[in-house]
Amino acid sequence: MMDNRKFSEQEEIRRRKLTDLIENNKNPFVQTKFERNFNTKTFKETFDNFSKEKLAEKSDVNIKIPGRIRLFRETGKAVFLNIQDGMGLVQAYLRKDVLGDEYFAELLNLDLGDIIGLHGKPMKTNTGELTLRVEKFVLLSKSLKPLPDKHHGIEDQEEKYRRRYVDLIMNEKSKQVFINRNKIIRTIQKVLDKKGFVEVETPILQSIYGGAAAKPFKTHHNALGMDLFLRIATEIHLKQLVVGSMEKVYEIGRLFRNEGISTRHNPEFTSIEIYAAYKDFYYMMDLSEEIFKESALAIGIKNNSVIEYSGKKINIFKKFKRIHMVDAIKENINVDFWKKMTFEEAKEIAKKHKLEVPKHFLSVGNIINLFFEEYVEPNIIEPTFVYGHPVEISPLSKINTEDPRFTDRFELFIIGREYANAFSELNNPIEQFERFEQQIKEKEKGNEEAHELNYEFIEALEYGLPPTAGIGLGIDRLVMLLTNSNSIRDVLLFPQMKIKN
Fold first, then answer.
1. What's the confidence (pLDDT) of residue 168?
2. How do residues 138-179 score in pLDDT, each as one tens digit?
3. What CA–CA distances, in Å, run from 335 to 266, 374, 394?
4. Residues 117 and 24 in one domain
5. Could you tell me the CATH number of the domain that includes residue 386?
6. In this structure, are 199 and 143 located in the same domain?
7. CB 79 within 8 A of CB 73
8. What pLDDT, in 10s, does the model give residues 402-420?
9. Range of the domain at 72
10. Whole-angstrom distance, CA of residue 425 vs CA of residue 450
11. Which of 144, 192, 368, 460 stands 20 to 30 A from 497 (CA)?
């Protein structure tokens, strides 16, 4: 099949160079490996403290470093290169009288972006810059496309996300975000492992979706002849494991929700859910606070220092605020939902405050949450645990023993965004069945995010779920916060994109 794409002039030149190499039996793509003994970081760590004179004495040291050419500067009968690997950049110095005429000519034929392997000795220039004095080189891979301008990188944000591999080459800050993402995830695992939690894996394809109020992706399994859903949460299966005597479990994994795309939302995202038997939701407050603080320290944020995000400054190391949802509403707009009222009375209050009540809302609890989302949530800046959610919007949460209108549930908000959702788990199978029935009524009235009735989960609860606390925490949003990234796409290596025409 012919490649009918149109190539730029530079791309055509590079392809001709490759053809010439192949015809001269120097095909770079036949190289299978390069045995390096240093990377750019270890090279600098080992030799940077030596003086120019001391390095000149190290004639017995043989350095082998591969990397991508990022800078090419010819100075008569010598060339300076900047070589980039996964750890950084290092300067290389190549002389014609060392390489010989043939290899120096091949050197001058190289392009920015080509990947080469270098053999040489450490040296320092007259300005004191640590440099590899190259004795020979080998071309390991030919770059057929030119890199973007080194000063600007990929300026088009859409292209940055589509061609993340190029962005990682050009943008060290972007790469550091993903290195920090890895450190954050590893830190969370270490915190939980030390507390005796077990990391597990649960199904992504599910016959009944549940565990969150969200719209699922639907697919079809041909062999089984049945429709399946991509999971919107890991909650149901993890709680079944607690029933099965795995008292402390967690899972870090992808979730899928068929909803809008924005700076905060991607159809697939990474979450962690954690469950602990014989604990309540206050335990999860303490645990999540510890996770946030340890994650910040892990990526170099100093203890008690202020971090900036979305133009706001916060101290992640201060004790997180705790407030009941009803108190938060009263504090912000002086509406008191502690007073008992009918649904019609609550609707009238909503009308006075110019809030439209959706048709599938059936209770005062729905309206309380509506007030919170409109008048409180956007105003929260410092890390705040908002607890006491109405029972109608918390179908998997245990009812508060002092006021049965509310549940032992909290959400963690920072700068107007939700970062975690947790509760003391409802473990009464009869009450859980009734909650699911209420969800079905909402679904019939148009709530596409209502929970399905899950008999398998009810049956598991009938075997006995101990008092249990659980939490779901958004990994992507945590990384965004701690790396000061404005969009969720900035912390996903390959975010979902429209097909490019």
1. 94
2. 999 999 999 998 766 677 888 899 999 999 999 999 999 999
3. 34, 13, 22
4. yes
5. 3.30.930.10
6. no
7. yes
8. 999 999 999 999 999 999 9
9. 9-147
10. 18
11. 144
